[in-house]
UniProtKB/TrEMBL annotation:
<dbReference type="InterPro" id="IPR036249">
    <property type="entry name" value="Thioredoxin-like_sf"/>
</dbReference>
<protein>
    <submittedName>
        <fullName>Glutathione S-transferase</fullName>
    </submittedName>
</protein>
<dbReference type="InterPro" id="IPR054416">
    <property type="entry name" value="GST_UstS-like_C"/>
</dbReference>
<feature type="domain" description="GST N-terminal">
    <location>
        <begin position="12"/>
        <end position="103"/>
    </location>
</feature>
<dbReference type="Pfam" id="PF13409">
    <property type="entry name" value="GST_N_2"/>
</dbReference>
<dbReference type="Pfam" id="PF22041">
    <property type="entry name" value="GST_C_7"/>
</dbReference>
<dbReference type="InterPro" id="IPR004045">
    <property type="entry name" value="Glutathione_S-Trfase_N"/>
</dbReference>
Length: 253
């Protein structure tokens, strides 16, 4: 019998019942849930990510400004293969290959398309959603993670977190979502709620977008005016899009 995959994620809100929020981690959590794979969540605070990753032999995902290695979550350890994988897309591709009898989020021949989509999705919408939710995200973190997150993000953007959520960012999100709506509707009626179209295939690209929405809902609250404003854009198109992923939102197994 296969052993549960260990999934490393960053908690917020409640120490006795931690809540997942990170959009990068949600892309993997969605993938695990969509595939029906058994896993368990190990929660790490920000200062603990690097030593844990190094201890497991996980690969760095970027470089720091000083040129040293930078480690981020998500990360998985698969006891069935002894593999340690970092980076959301790399993890999703690993799961496709290691568990071929489950639904693929990178269908054959789509890697180039999905890599390009990731880059444009972040530039067009992701970074602007980030600016809108970053303060609320930090305020839900436990003290050690809050201090690390605030210090590193304020250094990166050269501004206080309190100054980042502007109406210009809302306008950019609306414009970006309008562009995505056009992409979806190019599939024609019946195929306009998933990027691969009418066949109903959920891909990593869909999960990238859903992850932004679950992030905003988590830190703002489902009854908040900001969440209602976001999901009302383009006549409620994105509320319909996001609703498809509720069945893949189990927080842990």
């Amino acid at each position: 019998m296969a052993q549960p995959i260990v999934f490393y994620d960053i908690p917020i809100k409640d120490r006795t019942n931690p809540t997942p929020w990170s959009p990068n981690a949600w892309k993997v959590r969605y993938t695990l849930n969509l595939k029906g794979l058994k896993y368990k969540t190990e929660w790490l605070e920000y200062p603990d990510i690097e030593p844990t990753a190094k201890g497991l032999g996980g690969a760095p995902t970027d470089k720091k400004p000083d040129g040293s290695d930078f480690y981020t979550l998500p990360m998985i350890y698969d006891p069935n293969t002894k593999a340690v994988i970092t980076n959301s897309a790399a993890i999703a591709k690993y799961l496709d290959n290691a568990y071929p009898d489950t639904p693929r989020v990178f269908p054959a021949g789509t890697d180039a398309f999905q890599a390009a989509f990731l880059e444009t999705a972040w530039a067009n919408v992701g970074i602007h959603v980030f600016m809108l939710v970053i303060l609320d995200t930090a305020n839900h973190m436990f003290p050690r993670s809050h201090a690390y997150f605030r210090a590193t993000r304020e250094a990166k953007f050269g501004n206080k977190l309190e100054n980042l959520a502007t109406e210009d960012e809302w306008a950019a999100v609306e414009a970006g979502l309008a562009r995505w709506k056009g992409y979806l509707e190019a599939n024609g009626e019946g195929g306009d709620l998933l990027f691969m179209g009418a066949q109903g295939t959920v891909t990593y690209s869909d999960l990238q977008i859903a992850a932004l929405f679950v992030w905003a809902k988590t830190v703002w609250g489902e009854n908040s005016e900001r969440w209602k404003r976001l999901t009302a854009l383009q006549g409620g198109k994105w509320a319909k899009f996001y609703a498809q992923f509720a069945k893949f939102e189990q927080a842990a197994q």
